[in-house]
Amino acid sequence: MKAAIILAGGKGTRMKSDSPKVMCEVIFEPMISYVVSAVKEAGVEDICVITGYKHEVVENYLEKLDSNIKTALQEPQLGTGHAVMQAREFISGHMEDDILILNGDGPLMDADTVNKAYQYHKDNNNAITLISAVVDDTHGIGHIKRDKNGTLLKIVEDKDATEDEKKIMEANAGVYWFKGEELLYAINNIKNENAQKEYYLTDALEILIKRGRNKGAYVCENSEAVLGANDRIQLMDLNTIMRRNINNAHMLSGVDIPCTDGVMIGKKVKIGNSAQILPNTIIIGETEIGENCVIGPNCYIKDSKIGKGVILDNCKILDSTIEDGVDCGPFVKVRADSVLKKGVHIGNFVEVKNSIVGEGTKSAHLTYIGDSDVGSDVNFGCGTVTCNYDGKNKTRCKIGDGAFIGCNTNLIAPVEVGDKAYIAAGSTITDNIPEEALSIARAKQVNKEGWVRKKKPYKEK
Q: Any catalytic annotation for residue 345?
């Protein structure tokens, strides 16, 4: 059996954030969410997260993410070894198992790397296996020192390294596989005999070497997997890499992204074959997009389901369902709990909120449809407003199939418009309209001849 401990107690001072470091976001998701996903994809189900700074923020997030994740509080924060010490009870329950330890601020770590390191760990019957990577920048890293036969000797921190040791390009990733019983022995023997008076997990290697146990370092194939972020610039780098990785994965699966400028797609998003994603489009959350859609440019979609053959141009879609063949845009906003059924056309400067819009209905421009149940094949004239709020309560409008609503119509909810009813332009509707009726609700036009000449309601030049 495999278990995992995720270290997530740091403040991340250089981030200059009020949130714990692991809650800083990569593609609109906290970094720790990617780490948890990678661990689960690697087949590890029993997870303990070590929290610290503003622990309640991390704990509340984890409860929503997966209520089965255990937590342990590190207070105060006295190093990585001290963090793992807080999980003694968790480790004691996995004495016969293998335990993965990794950082909650390493969102690029992937299941493939974790599993390959685990296989190396098992094949060599190691008590401890480090994950390492060959990197270009060795500043501040832990250098992996080996003998001439390639056998792991120790980890040398950059500040303690000689000039020759600083030339070692193989870096410690801060990710480890341990045998459970060996991990417990190691943390029980880590000392804080250093200038910082902290307990370092890296000391576990020397402890287990002295105990005569097998050890090794697995060099991962993807050096980007070991990257973390200590400041906002490095966080931007993680965003850039993650954005590229996600976009590439979609393109390899048949999604057309002809230009990736400004295209940001969340890790949970699903997109069908032959869909086209155009520049400056952001798609996040639990969003699904069907085949043969054209999304963008300049779209923002969150937690929505988009059908097949949908066209969205300069649209904002939030928590809604857009069915097959819908055409929206430009400058359309569809707010939470809305459904646009098959073949709906929504044109420029139209907003839909908490409404069901029936098949084939058209609203070409400058309309607000709020808290309404709209039938099929309805036509909204320019400037129509469903007046759904009276200052205290919100009520609904119901519009029947085939209704025709003239320009600049106000529908004062609650009101019902019957099937195939017509509303004359400029009307304010306060009462129900029977089916196939024509409703006119406007004052009679009056022309007063010569009024301007007599009243002169302007300043003469």
A: no
